[in-house]
Write a structure and sequence with these properties.
single chain; 507 residues; alpha+beta; Rieske Iron-sulfur Protein; nine-stranded mixed sheet; 7 helices; 23% helix; 29% strand
């Protein structure tokens, strides 16, 4: 099944329709807290603060909620987090590992309460999670089950995961996990925020955030929002250049949804393996109501060759070998994961600023980290103590993750060295319709896209954030920055931060 990259839409929104639109910002305004971004983290923070009686304004670059990475999530709601508790115990000690488990479990509980109290129809279901090794070997599952149990999770070592047609071997069964349709939930959460008096503003891309008293949020239309506090919830922070970005690694991840039998042989659960890159699986419903199996994985660093069609094909083949009764592909898409070098998110006060807060570094658990952001940042804004604030502090330096910091810095340095190399092609005539490539032109490099009619579109290949050389993403037909994860559409317009301005025109 062939997919054009601009048809790469999540299974939740097959036609990309937007059923809830925000109001338009038409002038300067003053508020108590301004939240930048209407995804899971931003709306969670807004809900908590509004419920506490604050005047809250949410500013979103798109027309409504959940159009960024929240809507591209596969929405595994897991307290059994991706990076594992053996690793977390090593990095943060037993108490830190327990805090990770507790905070993610609390996040799932909070999501469930929103769904119950607000009557949100989003396919939420509590279920088990199963972790197993690939046939070629993997982690010590016994040690991982023991570490997860010490952290307070329900984690038991079983002879196999309950797949009818595939023998997994030993597997860990985690209780009290969950899944949902993230797009339906985020619309329900936005509606709940509106009922609490949150002002929701759309089509207002933010170009800068300045701390101070008051703090200032400036939009592309020239309007400003002044606030006592600002929360930057844009996946990758648009307000920071060094302090946090030097501790983050941007990754792309891929997902495929396949038709599944209404009553499949395999139990409804979350499944994931310990391969590198690992695979993660869940059942759910497509936008048209069809039951689907969603498999994700094939992660790679942003800016590396995407080869998206091959990655989607490998995911499909992997799933068909392990799950029974799968039909046609319903959707294929990719998303952005921001990996912190020490494995857990940065949620809290932006380093060096007293009234600017950030939520980033989802580490593959974006929905639960987003809910944690609401729990932690709202307390910090309101001056209340929070048991998890120190764990997620964006200013932290984890000494046991020193190699991760060094590797991240080395990778960025390698990408800056690309200014000294040649282009990907010597002649733009080699770029096919619908394709793109970086081409050297004298001392500069150009990002050149050829549209379906054959016309060339040229922009400078320097990312507008910190001048790294962008790379062509054939899966999404976008220009991606390998240094800090900014993404631009094929014409150079911003898709993802931290960049806030488009690629510069040629010459």
């Amino acid at each position: 099944m062939a997919h054009r990259a601009d048809e790469s839409l999540p299974v939740w929104s097959p036609s990309g329709e937007q059923t809830m639109s925000f109001e338009t910002l038409t002038g300067d305004l003053r508020t108590e807290t301004c939240v930048v971004g209407a995804g899971m983290a931003g709306l969670s923070v807004a809900w908590h603060l509004a419920r506490a009686g604050q005047r809250v304004t949410v500013v979103e670059s798109g027309p409504g909620p959940g159009l960024g990475e929240t809507g591209r999530s596969t929405a595994h709601l897991a307290s059994a987090v991706d990076d594992g508790f053996v690793v977390l115990e090593h990095l943060f000690g037993p108490a830190g590992a327990r805090a990770v488990a507790e905070s993610h479990a609390a996040a799932i509980d909070w999501i469930e309460r929103q769904i119950t109290d607000g009557g949100i129809e989003c396919g939420f279901r509590r279920l088990d999670g199963w972790l197993f090794n690939p046939p070629t070997g993997g982690i010590d599952l016994g040690a991982e089950a023991a570490a997860a149990s010490r952290a307070g999770l329900s984690a038991t070592l079983e002879a196999r995961a309950p797949l009818a047609g595939f023998q997994t071997g030993l597997a860990i069964r985690f209780g009290a996990q969950a899944r949902m349709d993230p797009r339906a939930f985020i619309h329900g959460l936005a509606a709940a925020c509106a009922r609490l008096g949150v002002r929701l503003l759309g089509n207002a891309p933010v170009v800068s955030v300045e701390g101070g008293h008051p703090a200032r949020v400036s939009t592309g239309q020239g309007w400003h929002v002044l606030a006592d506090a600002v929360v930057v919830a844009t996946d990758s922070p648009i307000n920071d250049r060094i302090a946090i970005h030097s501790k983050l690694v941007p990754m792309r991840t891929y997902a495929v949804a396949l038709e599944a039998a209404a009553e499949g042989a395999d139990p409804d659960a979350l499944y994931w393996d310990s391969a590198d890159p690992y695979h993660y699986v869940r059942f759910g419903e497509a936008g048209d109501g069809a039951r689907v199996l969603i498999v994700g994985g094939e992660d790679h660093r942003v800016g590396q060759p995407a080869h998206g069609q091959e990655r989607w094909q490998r995911l499909e083949e992997w799933a068909r070998q392990r799950f029974a009764g799968l039909g046609a592909v319903k959707a294929r898409w990719s998303g952005q994961i921001i990996e912190p070098v020490d494995r857990i998110a940065f949620i809290g006060r932006n380093p060096g600023e007293s009234n600017v807060f950030v939520a980033t570094g989802d580490s593959g658990n974006g929905i639960t980290h987003g809910a944690i952001a609401g729990l932690v940042i709202s307390d910090l804004v309101l001056g209340r103590d929070n048991a998890w604030a120190r764990l997620y502090d964006p200013a932290r330096l984890t000494l046991k993750a020193a190699q991760g910091y060094a590797d991240a810095g080395l990778k960025v340095a390698e990408h800056y060295a690309e200014w000294l190399t040649g282009g990907e092609v010597d002649d733009v005539a080699l770029i096919p319709p619908g394709g793109g490539a970086v081409v050297r032109q004298g001392l500069s490099k150009l990002a050149v896209y050829r549209d379906e009619s054959g016309q060339l579109h040229k922009r400078l290949a320097a990312c507008s954030h910190m001048k790294c050389v962008v790379a062509w993403n054939d899966a999404e037909r976008s220009w991606d920055c390998p240094c800090h994860g900014s993404r631009f559409d094929r014409f150079g317009r911003v898709l993802n931060g931290p960049a806030t301005s488009p690629l510069a025109p040629e010459g």
